[in-house]
Amino acid sequence: MSNTAAPNPVILFFAAIGRPVIAAFAAIGHVTLFALHTIRKALTPPWYPLRLFEQMFQIGWASLPVVALTAIFTGAALAQQIYTGGSRFNAQSTVPAIVVIAMVRELGPVLVGLMVAGRVSSAMAAEIGTMRVTEQIDAMVTLRTDPYRYLIAPRLFASVITLPILVCIANVIGIFGGYLLSIYKLGFNPANYLTMTADILEFDDIMMSLVKAAVFGFFIALSGCYAGLTTRGGAAGVGRATTNAVVGAFILILLSNLIVTLTAFG
After folding, report:
1. What is the pLDDT of residues 65-95, one digit of tens each?
2. Contact yes or no for 120/59 (Cβ under 8 A)
């Protein structure tokens, strides 16, 4: 007859909670160390400018169609929603002001970040993950080529550089989408709409949008490269890495957006 005592239910409960919490903190630590190591490597030679321009094209120019469509549809829908809500208390005239503030401060950077993350983070994780499981990265190290400098640094720099450009374009297109719907459907005067838009927009709004975009770009590349470089388990592992990269990028974008917003306006 065994003398082993039955496990305490309270201990089992806290153990079940503690395991994912510890795993989450361990993951945060690993990603932080990966980011610091990547930045240190990226700031020291050798550099690969051709790889940087290639990644800028892949991240920036290739993402422009989906970013433009997202922005113009969002701007038009936002104008309609503000007009409908404002009509309940005779505030329809606030449409231009709210559209420009919402697009520049919040919707432009966040939507562009999420759309680019869904497209770019998954591609980075899949490409680097495939190279990892097929031992191409090991071969690269054998040939004395640092994968952090050759694979990850160009993606990191390209993402940080191109995201603010994409966000600026999306802001303009989104505001234009709201302008078109307001003029041709809601009956606004074009000159008055543009004047109010220009009067309400401030330099601080633009700077916040650019800061958010740069932060989002960093996290997009970081999530994709980390998931790809830590891929294990063959083709199934590549699939998991792709999913983890997108989910991680989404969480980091939304969390950093809240932190930047609270820092600026808190």
Report:
1. 999 999 999 999 999 999 988 888 887 788 8
2. yes
